[in-house]
Amino acid sequence: MKRLASKIGFALSVFVLVSPAVLVFLWMLSLSFKNELDNTAFPPVFIPDPPTLKNYLDVFEKNNFALYLWNSILVTGGAVLIGLAVGVPAGYGIARGKSAKFAVLILIARMTPALSYLIPLFLLFQITGLVGTITALVITHLVITIPIIVWIMIGYFENVPMELEDAARIDGATTWQAFRHVALPLARPGIVVGGILAFIFSWNNFIFSVVLGGKNSRTLPSAVYNSLTFEQISWGPLAAAALLVTLPVLFLTVLAQRQIVAGLSAGGLKDG
Amino acid sequence: MTSTTALPAGLAPPQAKPFKHSADFTPRYWLFSLPAVLVILGVIVFPWIFTLYMSAHDWKIGGGPEFVGLQNFAELFKDARFIESMGHTAYFTILAVVLPILFGTAAALVFHREFPFRGLLRTIFVMPMMATPVAVALVWTMMFHPQLGVLNYLLSLVGIGPQNWVYDPNTVIPTLILVEVWHWTPLVMLIVLGGLAGLPREPYESALIDGANAWHMFRHITLPLVWPFIMVAIVIRTIDALKAFDTIFVITQGGPGTASETLNIFLYLQAFQFYKIGYASAVVVIFFVIIIMLSLLLLYARQKSKWNA
């Protein structure tokens, strides 16, 4: 009897923990599939009957959603690729060279609010005429991607035993070859984790594009906020757009759940 | 910086390596970091220095800079709106740290146990922190609608009257904290769960023999052992709560009036609404000092807790 009660209590606590997340995402889904009449009904209609795709069609037809999607892919893709190209060797250099000062710099960079980089970068881009270009956004997103990638790579390279590289060098390999052919393949899981987290944080970023994005170079989060919120206040298309914006990230979360958890707890630990 | 304990193990002062050659190669490793150093100098260090320069100038977008020394700072501390925003930030930050820490730790204890569908349920639980903040904030805005929002309907089912949520100066910050808690409790859960995963079994076994109950075991075994992890979570949460911008900006833009204007929103408005570049830069400098001081304080606390653990 007591066993059963504690089992039910446990199930109840799991339910309480999970339901806020379920409620918000299901409500988002429900809003996006209902017509405008049902969306503004009170008491609210929970299950779309019949479900409509009109909101999604609206998002693509009445707004430049495809363009903003492409912008987001360019900005995030560019920032993640450059971040990996620059950040992975840096993580190796810091881990092996034990450059603690540089590591602290990276740490402070991770803690500084993104907003504080924005004023000087805005002025800089104004002078160089880059405000409103994709290039400016890619450069600014490096502020997000490089610190996280470097930070995660430091941790992974430290777990790659030094002896293997030493052995390679005794056989005549250069430092670069030891990195390229010994350490790098072994740290591949770290590259995946760093890449995924950098992608998510860059994709989700809002403020850089609000200030630096032009009408045609906005990324999705600021486009949804700007064009959709002000040009049409109807809930259905807004919910559909919001869902489409966050869908790639949610997909990635489900697919790479284990790696993300590993990365966040490793990165989180090292954050202190 | 005295925070060497916070660094990954290998960043501690080099110990004698069993193999000599690695030391011989050390000087060349900085070459690997060179590209990153250059980029970081450009997009991170340059903005820091330039911000300091701007904070000492009266500068509006379109006009030129005029040196005013510390006048921006003096003005800031006379600016009632700035002082008010500091208060809002403190209010928001304290609750946006304490609540996720409590709920996240409780959630970690739950997810540490084995139960059916644990993986799936954990993924669902973690989703809020991954979701695009703007997208989620838009949905919350619709849910908070006083007349048509689903939250007031759900409250009416359990006999609670309609709330004004973000439309009332008295409830706007608690409501925004609700969103923040929803968003970031999973991160605390993951960090503490990582701590729980590494716990040894023996203390529990002997405690069971001694007839300890679940609360005693939590209080005297689990809590001290995972405390370093909770400290890490507190550090991260504090910094993130101070940085909170997206959801507040999307849901209230600091309103109604200035009732939810935090430091971050104040900074944004000064810079990009009023174009007072010098003034806004002074806010960034103050912000920066607060963040550095808090992190040092928390790192210190963490170090102490480590010694005691």
From TrEMBL, chain A:
Subcellular location: Cell membrane
InterPro entries: BP-dep_ABC_trans_perm, MetI-like, MetI-like_sf
This protein's GO CC annotations: plasma membrane
Signal sequence interval, chain numbering: none
Family of the protein in this entry: Belongs to the binding-protein-dependent transport system permease family.
Taxonomic superkingdom: Bacteria
Organism: Bosea caraganae
Pfam families: BPD_transp_1 (PF00528)
Residue ranges of domain ABC transmembrane type-1 in the record: 69-256
Membrane topology: Multi-pass membrane protein
TM regions (residue ranges): 12-33, 67-90, 102-125, 131-154, 190-213, 233-255
Entry keyword Membrane: yes
Keywords carried by this UniProt record: Cell membrane, Membrane, Transmembrane, Transmembrane helix, Transport
Name of the protein in question: Carbohydrate ABC transporter permease
BP GO terms, sorted: transmembrane transport
TrEMBL record, chain B:
Residues spanning the membrane: 29-50, 90-111, 123-143, 181-200, 221-239, 277-301
Statement: the UniProt record of this protein carries the keyword DNA repair: no
Membrane topology: Multi-pass membrane protein
SUPFAM superfamilies named among the record's database cross-references: MetI-like (SSF161098)
Coiled-coil features, chain-numbered ranges: none
Entries under Gene3D superfamilies matching the protein: MetI-like
The keyword Transport is assigned to this record: yes
One Gene Ontology cellular component: plasma membrane
CDD domains in the record: TM_PBP2
GO biological processes: transmembrane transport
Main location: membrane
Alphabetic keyword roster: Membrane, Transmembrane, Transmembrane helix, Transport
ABC transmembrane type-1 domain: residues covered: 86-298
Pfam families with a match to the protein in the record: BPD_transp_1
Subcellular location: Cell membrane
Homology family: Belongs to the binding-protein-dependent transport system permease family.
Protein name, as recorded: Sugar ABC transporter permease
Protein's organism: Bosea caraganae
